[in-house]
């Protein structure tokens, strides 16, 4: 007897990071991990302490919502991290996909490993800080 194949059930589970291009695969509410360079941090005054992050990996971007309680717990990583790993629940509203953060890890030291890899000089400029500092 053949069983039905459900492609939405075959995605990397935490702690493995899901490539951002595959964020459309897990169902809403699924627990996922994403990792990437921090492109944007937003903390609008009207958002009642919520922080919005945009992370980029080699496949695209991921939008992350950090509720105030989670922000307080992982404050240092959210504020200072250049490369983050975020585990949380996938939230899908129409075409918009967010990861609602439960745990945030600053993995910035891994940037040195990336820069030491073959072809690193070409990537060094891509890993530069947005504020221009080394």
Summarize this structure as a short list of keywords or feature phrases:
134 residues, Error-prone DNA polymerase, DnaE2/DnaE/PolC, 4 helices, alpha+beta, NA-bd_OB_tRNA, five-stranded mixed beta barrel, NA-bd_OB-fold, single chain
Question: Largest beta sheet: what is the strand line-up?
Answer: 1-2-3-5-4
What spatial form do the alpha-carbon principal axes imply?
A: globular
| Count of individual domains | 1
Could you tell me the number of beta strands?
5
Indicate the CATH architecture: Beta Barrel
Main sheet? 5 strands, mixed, barrel
Listing every helix as H and every strand as E from the N terminus to the C terminus, the arrangement reads EEEHHEEHH
Residues in β-strands, percent: 35-45%
Structural class: alpha+beta
Give the averaged pLDDT, no decimals.
84
The CATH superfamily title: Nucleic acid-binding proteins
Low-confidence stretches: 1-8
The value of Rg in angstroms is 16 Å
Count the helices. How many? 4
Q: Give the CATH topology.
A: OB fold (Dihydrolipoamide Acetyltransferase, E2P)
> How far from one another are the termini?
59 Å
Kindly describe this structure:
The longest helix is centred in the last third of the chain and has 7 residues, at 110-116. A hairpin with a 2-residue loop joins strand 4 (83-93) and strand 5. The protein has one domain (13-124): OB fold (Dihydrolipoamide Acetyltransferase, E2P) (Beta Barrel). The protein has four helices and five strands. It has a five-stranded mixed beta barrel with strand order 1-2-3-5-4. It is α+β, with helices and mostly antiparallel strands and 134 residues long.
């Amino acid at each position: 007897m053949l069983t039905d194949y459900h492609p939405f059930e075959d995605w990397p589970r935490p702690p493995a990071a899901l490539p951002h291009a595959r964020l459309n695969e897990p169902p809403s509410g699924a627990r996922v991990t994403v990792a990437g360079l921090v492109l944007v941090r937003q903390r609008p005054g009207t958002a009642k302490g919520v922080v919005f992050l945009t992370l980029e990996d080699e496949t695209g971007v991921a939008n992350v919502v950090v509720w105030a309680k989670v922000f307080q717990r992982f404050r240092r990583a959210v504020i200072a991290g250049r490369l983050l790993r975020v585990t949380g629940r996938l939230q899908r509203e129409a075409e918009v996909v967010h990861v609602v953060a439960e745990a945030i890890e600053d993995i910035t030291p891994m940037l040195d490993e990336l820069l030491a890899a073959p072809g690193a000089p070409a990537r060094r400029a891509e890993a530069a800080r947005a504020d221009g500092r080394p």
